[in-house]
Amino acid sequence: MVDLDLQIKSIQDKLQQLLRLNSVLHKENQRLKKELEKAGSLNGEKEQLILSLQQKIDTLKLGAGNLNEEEKNALGKRIDVYLKEIDKCLALLNT
Q1: Residues 40/41/46/50 CA torsion (nearest 10 deg)
Q2: Sign of the CA dihedral with 45 first, then 51, 52, and 57 last
Q3: Ramachandran class of 65: left when φ > 0, alpha when ψ lies in -120 to 50, beta otherwise
Q4: How far is residue 74 from each of residues 9, 54, 67, 83, measured CA to CA in Å?
Q5: How far apart are CA 49 and CA 15, in angstroms?
Q6: How many other CB atoms are there within 10 angstroms of residue 44's CB atom?
Q7: pLDDT in tens, 73-93
């Protein structure tokens, strides 16, 4: 009977240890989720900044007339992408 009591006590101790570890891991998981969300938000902001700066560079190059053939083609492709996005937005507004 004493042996059974020791086993039950051992199981209870291990269960308490697992519960504490679970709580610690849960808190760490929540912290990491918040950190990931913040990093994702910051990444989105940086991507928008890069896009904005790239547009400004293109505008300056276009205004100066210093575009080579490759840059003209790349700019034309980007303009086509913008036009497609505008068309999609207009289509959504008209539905």
Answers
A1: 90
A2: positive
A3: left
A4: 72, 12, 10, 14
A5: 50
A6: 10
A7: 888 888 899 899 999 989 888
Give residue-wise pLDDT tens across range 27-77: 999 999 999 999 999 999 999 999 899 888 878 877 777 778 887 888 888
Is the model more confident about 62 or about 11?
11
Nearest in space to 59 (alpha carbons), one of 44, 83, 79? 79
CA angle 38, 43, 49 (to 5 degrees): 130
